[in-house]
Amino acid sequence: MSNVPADLRYTREHEWAKQEAGRVRVGITAFAQEQLGDVVFVELPKTGARVRAHQTFGVVESVKAVSDLFAPMSGEVVETNAELGQKPETVNQDPYGKGWMIVVTPADPKEWDQLLTAAQYEEFIAQAGR
Amino acid sequence: MDTSLKRTPLFTAHVEAGARMVPFGGWEMPVQYTGIVEEHRTVRAAAGCFDVSHMGEFEVEGPGALAALQRLTTNDVAALEIGQVQYSVLCHPHGGIVDDLTVYRLAAERFMITVNASNIAKDWAHVTTNGDAGARWRNVSDDTGLIAVQGPRAEALVGRLADLDVTRLGYYRFAAGKVAGAGALISRTGYTGEDGFELYVAAPDTLRLWKALLEAGRAEHVAPIGLGARDTLRLEMRYALYGNDIDDTTNPLEAGLGWVVKPAKGDFIGREAIERVRAAGPARRLVGLEMTERAVPRHGYPVLKDGTATGVVTSGSYGPSVDRYIAMAYVATPHAALGTELAVEIRGQARAARVVKTPFHPSRVKKG
After folding, report:
1. Do B347 and A59 touch (CB under 8 A)?
2. Among B2, B4, B8, residue whose Cα is nearest residue B142
3. Could you tell me the pLDDT band of residue B197, with boundaries at 50, 70 and 90?
4. Which of A63, A83, A91 to mutate against chain B (most B CBs within 10 Å)?
5. Exposure of B276 by Cβ count < 10 A (0-12 exposed, 13-18 middle, 19+ buried)?
6. CA angle A86, B337, B74 (to 5 degrees)
7. Looking at the DSSP assignment, which residues form a beta bridge with residue B193?
8. Do A64 and B298 touch (CB under 8 A)?
9. CB-closest option in A41, A43, A63 to B36
10. Do B296 and B325 contact (CB within 8 A), yes or no?
11. Hey, are the CB atoms on A40 and B296 less than 8 Å from each other?
12. Residue A125 pLDDT class (50, 70, 90 cuts)
């Protein structure tokens, strides 16, 4: 079973979100990177861009597939992980750490409560794996 | 599980090894075991074993066998010695490619051809409809297992298990022998750009041979390799994949396969149409592209010159050995010269690319 850290929240599109002093860091889950296989390209928005909850904010590509990235929350992008441009494989190696993708200043903090908890996400991927 | 998909004799072995199984050309095949990039590197650095039993094999025999193949294929089969293999294509009368294949001369009047898995039914109809009198065709696809062993350690590995000296076998040569006790046609061919072999065995022997190869190669990091790495390996060599880079609508000249078209040998299906293309010059050419801006080119993406469409990507990926994003693409002939600056349209954005020399990665197949 995939690693699902208890302190994060999750989307049904397999992104994770982490609260950091009023901002939210975003990446894709261990389950997502396992399903994708080797990540060879990541396309992220520029800082200052606005993202909307449930809307795409970028693309992650494995050797075989192109997958959209979905924003867990609406807001302004204040940081992006530039290192993924040169080392996209970091997403496979450390999806919850160095493989993070963007940091957002949430426009509506209440959106946090609509995200899946770790327990809900674990149940969700257990069903998806069936 | 989709029960309409066919399975090779190694299906259970793949599942037990933890392979991810996917539909491919009507077959349920392993796309990867541990990861495409790792498997790709294993083949370039050590050796890998590929289950390619899904491919089709037809035998043709009789006094008319040579004439039938001369009429069906574009290359000169008469030039083929017993024990030699030839790459070739089957064409339609309009010059489009029915399939690409390898032709084996087993005896003076006996040949085997190996065709793509997804084309077995189409090819069988084509060869039996157009085959000459005096040629008996036999579809032995279901009776035949095929394992490719590819990589710098392939010669040592197959050599240890074979009852003949495989070091004497030249590129595109084959011999009958035993490998790990199984009767095999040992062919020094492949689809990776590395030295290696393709081992044809009776279907019931396939699993035993597969296990013997992996067991004997374990200490040297020989591993099973899925179709995902097979695709990135062949792309780095600019080897065409039927259905991606060549198909019923592409002719051999624009695909860069003019070297297997031998009009001097006499008539063959498609000759007239292909000679018309040769006289006029192909309107487009299959070229190698390297992205000069970071982005992944993929099958079907438009190719642009100064913002205007000039072609289409037929295969594209990250190339693990060249560490670049590379592609094969049909491009209008005026824009096909080496060094031409083009772009690939990716999600609505023009991303810079350049026509480059191929293969993208140097070939290390056995010389001579």
Report:
1. yes
2. B8
3. very high
4. A63
5. exposed
6. 110
7. none
8. no
9. A63
10. yes
11. yes
12. very high
Q: Which residues contact A12 (CB under 8 A, 6 or more apart)?
A: A116, A124
DSSP state of B62: S
Residues with Cβ within 8 Å of residue B207, at least 6 apart in sequence: B9, B10, B13
Radius of gyration of chain A (CA): 13
* Chain A residues whose beta carbon lies within 8 Å of the beta carbon of residue B20: 37
Q: Check pLDDT > 80 for residue B131.
A: no
The yes-or-no verdict on residue B4 having pLDDT over 90 is no
Residues of A in contact with B347 (CB under 8 A): 59
CB atoms within 10 A of CB B16: 8
Asked whether B116 and B100 are in contact (CB, 8 A), the reply is: yes
Say how far apart CA B301 and CA B312 lie, in whole Å. 6
- Who among B20, B36, B294 is closest to A38 (CB)? B36
Q: Is the dihedral of CA B305, B307, B311, B315 positive or negative?
A: positive
Contact A111, A24 (CB under 8 A): no
Segment B2-7 shows an average pLDDT of 82
Verify whether the Cβ–Cβ distance B228 to A64 is below 8 Å: yes
Interface confidence (ipTM) of the complex:
0.91
* H or E segment and range at residue B28: strand B27-32
Taking CA–CA distances from A43, the nearest residue in chain B reads B295
**3-state DSSP assignment of residue B78:** helix
Share the mean pLDDT of chain B: 97
Question: The tokens of B306 are what?
Answer: 């100064």
Are the beta carbons of B243 and B205 closer than 8 angstroms?
A: no
